[in-house]
């Protein structure tokens, strides 16, 4: 087999179509005939100048192709490489790739011959586009799942009615506060609040009015405490406030706790708009100081709950601090 015939067979087997263009004059000195045939053009329709080639290149790819040729011509890259779309005679677009190199000829010192091959990459590009689409879908699904997880986590940690932290989130925050107290020696406090009149609201005005009351209590509570404090609804008409960073002196911490509790009592005793007439609803508050010696949330709640019942026994709409020696 002659050398040229051998090369042609290899090129055909590899799906490569050889071409040659003279860049100075813009003449096509060897056409990529197999490519044109694949596109549905006759050899005459292919033309003899590079403008004919650019006329069937996708408008979005023309500048990139010319830039790739210029980069190689300037010596910025070792060879010319470009991927682009060509228009078939029927109007469809097919992806191809070029790979070529400038060749200097002794007999044409002023000419710039670009010799290379063109090969069909349409199947690969379609696979890449499909993969890109699938990756986009996966990314969107991942984002949706992350949003859903955040929403589910929020739902698991938030009271549905008042949007306050629920018992689960409160326990987590109390445990964090207890761990922090071991390092900082700072005191905190747990305030246990129970409505004095909630059952009457439900019985006389209905559960919808009761829900409105709970939401208003939550709003007022949040406004009455410091921004860093935690307000939670742990059941029915029971709320808990966790105070942190009250100092290292227990007397001072108890005084600050009392000040905040009295502010809460004043705020929550103001009339509520439920139905056609204003409604008075008060709360009883029990509190206990939170320090490094406490081992659990349950210990704190038990003490604050004990103090809260002492407040109810003393006439309601009042506050009591837990006293370890108290028996009533």
From TrEMBL:
Q: Which SUPFAM superfamilies match?
A: Nucleotide cyclase, PYP-like sensor domain (PAS domain)
Keywords per UniProt = Coiled coil
Establish whether keyword Coiled coil is in the entry: yes
Protein's name according to its UniProt entry: Diguanylate cyclase
Q: Which domain of life is it from?
A: Bacteria
Q: Which residues form a coiled coil?
A: 124-151
Q: Pfam families from the entry?
A: GGDEF (PF00990), PAS_3 (PF08447)
Q: Give all residue intervals belonging to the GGDEF domain.
A: 186-324
Which species?
Rhodoferax aquaticus
Annotated ranges, domain PAC: 80-133
Q: InterPro entries, alphabetically?
A: DGC-Regulatory_Protein, GGDEF_dom, Nucleotide_cyclase, PAS, PAS-assoc_C, PAS-like_dom_sf, PAS_fold_3, Rev_trsase/Diguanyl_cyclase
* Residues of the PAS domain: 39-76
- Note the NCBIfam families from the entry: GGDEF (TIGR00254), sensory_box (TIGR00229)
């Amino acid at each position: 087999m002659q050398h040229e015939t051998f090369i042609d067979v290899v090129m055909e087997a590899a799906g490569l179509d050889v071409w040659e263009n003279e860049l100075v004059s813009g003449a096509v000195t060897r056409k990529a005939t197999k490519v044109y045939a694949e596109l549905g053009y006759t050899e005459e329709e292919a033309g003899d100048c590079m403008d004919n080639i650019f006329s069937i290149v996708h408008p979005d790819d023309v500048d990139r192709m010319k830039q790739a040729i210029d980069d190689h011509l300037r010596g910025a890259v070792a060879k010319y490489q470009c991927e682009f779309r060509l228009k078939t005679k029927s109007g469809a677009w097919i992806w191809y790739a070029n790979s070529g190199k400038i060749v200097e000829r002794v007999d044409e010192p002023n000419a710039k011959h670009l010799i290379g091959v063109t090969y069909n990459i349409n199947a690969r590009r379609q696979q890449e586009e499909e993969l890109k689409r699938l990756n986009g879908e996966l990314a969107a699904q991942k984002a949706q799942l992350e949003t859903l997880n955040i929403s589910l986590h929020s739902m698991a940690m938030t009271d549905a009615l008042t949007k306050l932290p629920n018992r689960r989130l409160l326990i987590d925050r109390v445990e964090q506060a207890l761990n922090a107290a071991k390092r900082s020696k700072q005191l905190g406090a747990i305030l246990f609040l129970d409505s004095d009149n909630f059952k009457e609201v439900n019985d006389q005005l209905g559960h919808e009015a009761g829900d409105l009351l709970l939401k208003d209590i939550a709003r007022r509570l949040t406004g009455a405490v410091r921004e860093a404090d935690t307000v939670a609804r742990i059941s029915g008409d029971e709320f808990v406030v966790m105070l942190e960073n009250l100092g290292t002196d227990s007397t001072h911490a108890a005084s600050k706790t009392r000040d905040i509790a009295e502010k809460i009592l004043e705020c929550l005793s103001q009339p509520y708009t439920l139905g056609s007439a204003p409604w008075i609803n008060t709360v009883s508050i029990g509190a206990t100081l939170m320090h490094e010696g406490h081992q659990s949330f349950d210990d704190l709640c038990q003490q604050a709950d004990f103090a809260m019942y002492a407040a109810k026994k003393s006439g309601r709409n009042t506050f009591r601090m837990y006293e370890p020696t108290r028996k009533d």
